[in-house]
Amino acid sequence: MLLINMKIHILYALVALLAFRAGAQDTVGRAFTEAFDDSALHNFHYGSTGVRDAFKWMAGAASAAEPASKVLLFKIDPADSAGAGRGPEIISNEFTHYGSYSARYKIPDVRKVQPNTGAVVGYFTYNMDSVFGLSEIDIEFLLADPTIIFIGTWTGHHESKLQRIGRTIDLAKGKIYYTIAKTGYDGAPTALTGQQSQPETIPAMPDFDASARFYTYGFDWYPDRLRWWVIDPATGKKIVLWDYTGSRLGIPPNKTLYRMNFWHTKTWAVDTNPLSLERPLNPYALEVDWMKYEPFK
């Protein structure tokens, strides 16, 4: 078993080295901030594959939560079918790679109107490369419980062989539900420990509610490390949600595309509400204040 694990780590290191060399020859690395201050997108383009209703998105919209701010407004369309990419989505015009990613946004509050809504807000990177496979890093929320945050990655080839590392946290309680690795969407999860599961505890943010106000979320992507974080608006301090090191397993080695989306799920319910799979009945609104990418030099 030890020999097998050593071979897996060596394989991931070789893939990472090859991807780094290939990526170094591409034009990836321009820093940018998309402020959504006007109706045009400057570093992104709209990319939904669902129903083409005009109300689904608008840049430069007045924020309902902060009237003095202009935001990217995403509205989920009740006519859209389930599935990632069906709802509103923006995709970066250029590839991105190792660096610091951050965004400030506020998700909708559906709990009084439709508590069993099945909908996902995804702040993430995603690109499938024919040689190096999938490069995906996620920060996600399910609307039915805006205190729970899902972070992780997907790497590799083909659905049955995709590699997942993930952590689920109730940030209001400071509770880590699990930190796992698995192969394939339906694979058996294995608990991660040691350097791959740091910090082992997270301080509670008792007032945390992703639907109550804007928060700044981010992740720092290195060849051999991934760190997810959120800014506590009460203190201005960065709260580290997961500092993943000690293995290259699950760390994407190849370039990607930077994204934000909002979509209906009928198969993924939040841990605290197994009934939260309903089609959205109303055009619930996600507000995005800004998105930033800062490449590492």
Q: Mind describing the biggest β-sheet?
A: 9 strands, antiparallel
Count of helical stretches: 1
Oligomer: single chain
Strand content: 35-45%
Q: Which structural class matches the secondary elements? A: mainly beta
Q: If strands are numbered along the chain, what order do they take across the biggest sheet? A: 2-5-16-7-8-9-10-11-12
Terminal Cα separation, in Å?
38 Å
- Number of E-state strands: 17
Assigned CATH class: Mainly Beta
According to CATH, what is the topology? Jelly Rolls
Summarize model confidence as the mean pLDDT: 92
- Tell me the radius of gyration: 19 Å
Please state the overall shape, judged from the principal axes of the Cα atoms: globular
Q: What is the string of SSEs from the N terminus onward? A: HEEEEEEEEEEEEEEEEE
Number of domains: 1
| Proportion of residues in helical segments | under 10%
- Ranges where pLDDT stays below 50 over 5 or more residues in a row are 1-25
CATH hierarchy: architecture? Sandwich
Structure, explained:
The protein has a single domain (2-295), classed as Jelly Rolls (Sandwich), CATH 2.60.120. 8% of the residues lie in helices and 40% in strands. The chain has 1 helix and 17 strands. Strand 11 (175-183) and strand 12 (190-191) form a beta hairpin. The radius of gyration is 19 Å and the shape is globular. The chain starts with a helix and ends with a strand.
